[in-house]
Records
---
Amino acid sequence: MTPKLSICIATYNRARYIGETLESILPQLTDDVELIIVDGASPDETPQVVARYQHPSLRYVRETTNSGVDRDYDKAISYALGEFCWLMTDDDLMVEGAVKCVLSRLGNELDLVVVNAEVRNKDLSAVLRPTMLRFDEDRTYDDPSGESVFVDVAGYLTFIGGVVVRRSWWLQRQREPYYGSLFIHIGALFQAPAVRRVHVVARPLLIIRFGNAMWTARSFEIWMFKWPGLVWSFEQFSAAARKAVCPPRPFLSAKRLLWHRAVGSYTTAEYRQHLVSRGTVVSRAVASVIAHLPGKVANFICALYYLLRRSNPAKLELYDLLRSGYVTALARRVAQARHVA
C-alpha cells in the first residue's frame, strides 16, 4: 500500500542526536507513514546508531560520498513512496501526536503543509520560544501569486523541518539550481510559479534544538549574503514583499554587524572577505570599526541592550550571546534572569 506520508531525513555526523530524534518519531509511525534516512557518508557512528532502531517502515540509505544537504534531501524525496514528504531534521524532535495531526491536515487540494515549532536550547532543558510562527489558529492559503504565503512563512521556513510537501509537486520543480544554497526547499517552493495551496498548522509539533546547526561557523556569510540573495532572486514578488522577508543588503546595518561581532561570527577575516569592497565609503568604515572592536565589548553592548529592553525577553538572542566565545559576565546575568540556560 502506498503510504500517505514519507518522513524524509537527510543526515550527516549526527550520531550524538539522531537516536533521540528517531525515538520521537518511530512510536508515531503507522501503516500510512514511512521513514527514510539518507546519510551523506557520515564518518561518525551514525550507521551504528541508526542500526539500533528496527522498524518495518524505516529505510536507511547510506551514500558513498557526501553531496551536500540540498542534494540529500532531494534524494530522500526521490526514494520516498508517500504522497507527501515531511522534510524532517536530524537533531530535532517531534512532539507526541505530531504525525497524526499532520495526517489529518493532508488533503487533495494542498501542495504544502507548514508545521509550527517550539524552540529550546541545545540540551532541550529551556524553552527559548514557545512558538516560532505567531499564529493563533491554523491558516489556509489559496493565493495564485503565492506572495502572501511568502511574506507570512518564508522566514520561518529557513527551518526545513517545517515543510510537508506533495511529492509529485516537488518533483515537477527546478531543484538543481538550488543545490549548495542550503535552502533547496525555499527555492523549490517559491520559484515562479510559487506554491499557492498551503495549510499552516499553528500548534507547535516540533521541538527545535537551537544553536546546533551544521552551518554555525558560516552564519555570517549565510545570513548576510546567501539568504538575502535567494530571497531577492524571486523577482515575481514585489520589492515590499521581499523586503518584509529580508532586506536586500543586511550587511549595511551596523546593528546587525555588531550582533555578529558579539556572537563571534564577524571578525576582520569576514570583513576582508566580504565587505572591504562593498557599500559606500562610510559603510565600509563602520564595518571595519565593528570588525576591529573587541568581541567582549560587542557582547557587553548587546547584553546591555537586552537588559534595558525589558519588554522583550529575547531568549534566542541571549542564548546566542551566552554561547559566544566572547561571553561576558553581564550576558550571563541577563540570561540567568531570563531563564536561559
---
Amino acid sequence: MNAAREAVQLADRLCRRVLAPLLRGGSVEPLPPIGSARALAASEFDLPLPDDLAQLIGDLRIREARTLYPVDCLPPIGRAEWLMAFALNDLLQATNPRLVGVLGRDRPRRLIEMADRMLDAAGSPQTVVDALGRHATFSRIFELTRIDTTVSWWVGSELFQGRRPPARLTAWPELRRVRRHQEPIRLADMPPPSALWRTTWLECMAKLYSASPLTDLAWIGRVQPAFRWTGALCGFTRNPVGRRLALRAIERTTDRPRAVANLAAAARRVEPEEARAHAEAFAAELSSSR
C-alpha cells in the first residue's frame, strides 16, 4: 500500500471512530496509537473523505460554527486539524491501561512526547476563519468522558476502564449476586492520580486546547488544566473580529464567575508587560459586561 492511500485510510478511520462521534456527542473509540512519524507523514497528503462522511462532518462543523458566527461554509479539515486529531487520539490512548503490555510501562510518556510534536507542527491558527474552523471541529472536546464499570459478585470484583464487562461476568445476576457500578470519568481525570506522567499529560492537553483558542475560551471555567494566555491568543483577541468571537465563546460558559476569575488570574501571569496589560484589559471588559 502506498503512503498516500494509507494516509487517506487512516483519516477515514479517525473520522469514523473519533471526529464524527466527537462532533455528534457520541461514543468515541480511539484508534491504536498513531505516533508522531506516521501522523506527520499523513498530514502532508490531501486527505479527502468519502462523500457521505465529508457531508456529515461538514454539516456538523457548520452547525457548531454558527453558534458563534453566521457562516454558510468552512474550509475542509486541514493539516493542522488533522494533527490535532491525531494528537487527541494518542493522548486518549496514553490513559488506556490495556496498552501497557503492548508498549511497556513507558507507554504514556512516549505517547505524550509524540503528541507534543504533532501539536508543535499544528501551531496556532493564522486567521480568524482558521480559528473558527478549529473550534467547529473540537468544540466538544471537554465533554469527553470515560465510563468505568465495576462489576462485583459473590467471590470477587473487577474494574473495566472505558470498556464493557464481558457477558460471562454479568450472567445469572441474582444467583451470583452480581452488582454493576458505573462512574463517568472526566477528561482531565483520566490519568491515574498517582501517575508520574499526569502533569505532563495535562500540559500537553493544555497545548491542544490553546491550538483552538475559541474552544479554550469557551471552556475557560474549567479547573484543569488551568487556562493560560498565549502569544497567539493575545494576537487573536487584538483582532476586532477575533475579539468579538472570543467574547461570544466565553459567554457560552456554564460557570461565568469562575470564567471571569480564571481569565483575570491568567492575565496576571502574562509576560511581558504589554501583553499582560492587554490580557488584563480583556478580562476587565468581560467582568464589566456581567
---
Amino acid sequence: MRQITAKICYAFEQGRTLKIDNSETDGTSLWLFGNKIAEWRQGEIWITDAGWQSKTTKERLNGLGGVNIVQRAGNWYLNGNFWQGEWTSVNENNGIVATPQEVVQFDITSEWKGNYSKPIYSVYHTHTEAEILQIEFMLSAIGIPTTKTYSDTDGEYKPNHFIVVPVAEFERAKQFLTKVSLETL
C-alpha cells in the first residue's frame, strides 16, 4: 500500500481532516480527484468507485478497513462479490455502531512519545499487522466485536497496530487475552 493511501485512509477512519496531492478527507468523506469515493453514514463506511474503476481508485478504497477489491477479467469484486461500483456499505467496525471518534478514542495522557498515543479501549498492540489479524479472529470467535486501528509514527518507531473493542466488552476481552497469553507460555 502506498504511503499516501495509508495516511489519507487513516485520517478518514479517525475522523480527521487531511489533504495530500489528489486525495482529501474532512473526516466524514473521502475524495479522490474531487470525486467522493467513501463516506461515514450512521457509523458505517460506505464506498463507491464514483464511476472510475481505476488503479488509483482501487488502491485508495483498499486502504480502508473492511474493503478488499480485486479485479478479474476486467470486473471488480468487493469482498468476493461482483461489484459495479455502486454505493455499498462495508461495516468495517464489525457491528460497533459509532462514529470513528467514538470507536477509537486516544489516551492523550499516555506515556507514548509525541502525538502518538494508545487508544483507550485497545486490548492488544503490536508492530505487525499479521499478529493483529490473529487476535481479531480469536476475539470474534468468542463473540467480541473488534475494530483495527494504527498509529503511524512516520518511522520514529514502527506503525503501532491496535485492536479496539466496545467499552462493554473491554474487561472480558482483556481477561480472555490474558488467559490465552498465559496458556501459550
